[in-house]
Amino acid sequence: MRHRSRGMRELDVPARAPTGSGSVAARITWGAVAAIFLISFYAAPCLIARPQSTSPTTWAVSIVLPPRLVAGQPATLAVLGVDGRLADGITVQVGLDQQVKTDKTGRAFFTAPRNTSVVIATASGNSAAALVDSEGPSPRPGPIVGPIVAPIVSQLDEFPICGGGYRGDVDADRVALNGETAFVLAASPECLVILASPRAIPGPAKISIETPDAQWAATSTLVSLHFDPPLPPLIPENRSKLVLHVQGSDQALRVSVENNTPGVLRFLQGDRQALLTSGGPRNSAQIEVKAIRTGDFFFHARILAAPDPEPARRYLIAAESIAPQDFQHVTKTLADRLTHHSHDTQKVERELNDVIATTMAGDYRTLLAAAASALE
Predict the structure, then answer these.
(1) Contacts for 265-272: CB closer than 8 Å, 24+ residues apart
(2) Of 114, 259, 304, 334, which residue has the fewest beta carbons closer than 10 angstroms?
(3) Domain stop point among 280, 303, 326
(4) Position 69 in a domain
(5) 106 with 49: CB under 8 angstroms?
(6) For residues 10 and 83, what is the distance between their CA atoms, to the nearest angstrom?
(7) Taking the chain (376 residues) in consecutive chunks of 10 residues, what is each chunk's mean pLDDT?
């Protein structure tokens, strides 16, 4: 395990909105004649990665791991506070026998454990999981395959680039989108997790990746999500519609929209919805809502990648080995279905979410959540 003090890389790091891309904070109030709707879109201001305060911005954190690690090889993770910014001084338990602390850039170095197919990292009551592949030569002389990146990626949310040949030390990896330097949040020899520069413009994106050993190029499309104020304006007990717009692509996209304050604003079709945008020059989707009472509300939207049954199957196999007795059979059944019927992802995801809803927090639930995420 390595402990190293690093200076902050001199580049702009986007501050993420507390709830992801397409996030909206707003308030429903009573006006003299009608309700006044106040809406503000979380922008991505430029800032240097910096220490976070000891206020409640860091007690609830999210951990960013590379989706795939290599056993016995170095890797980097990142921790984000509830305000969406990189959080320093956070202790992270990695697997059973490693404990690391994030540095001034909000990241920490660790070594992927051997003799396991998954690793779970835990900090401040939250956890994240990553797959661990068998150990190979390090550094690799070149990529086994070319860079693998989703055809559509978010302007504000982190996204992975996989394929192999990278460095687990983030300072050795350089990524740019259309010439704008991106911020490498997490890294392993198999995958990088990056944030686009806040100056990045939605639309076609040429991605360049450079390590001390090699260079690669890939293409994708950078997309921004934003909302129109509800029409009609929100008034308690009345219905309205939210319109989600896509900037940067005319393709119909799968988008997940989640309501974080159902006591103030209710989504009529469920407070977590998977939508398909219309595509075309006015690429958009609508959500029917009802204002419940006055108060602040939050919701966010994120782009869904294509379902990937293979990592989901691996997470479920790992989950089966630690499942409570009452859940061992259902976990094995779901893993077997992905092995023999890999196209049945939607049904498996629904059943997984039913199990998650009745499962206590812990490593088993973390693995189930990772499997469900791969199937969204």
Answers:
(1) 265/28, 265/234, 265/289, 265/290, 265/291, 265/292, 265/297, 265/299, 266/290, 266/292, 267/299, 268/239
(2) 114
(3) 303
(4) yes
(5) yes
(6) 21
(7) 33 40 60 33 30 42 96 97 90 96 97 96 94 70 71 93 95 96 97 94 96 95 90 88 94 93 91 93 94 87 93 97 95 95 91 93 96 94
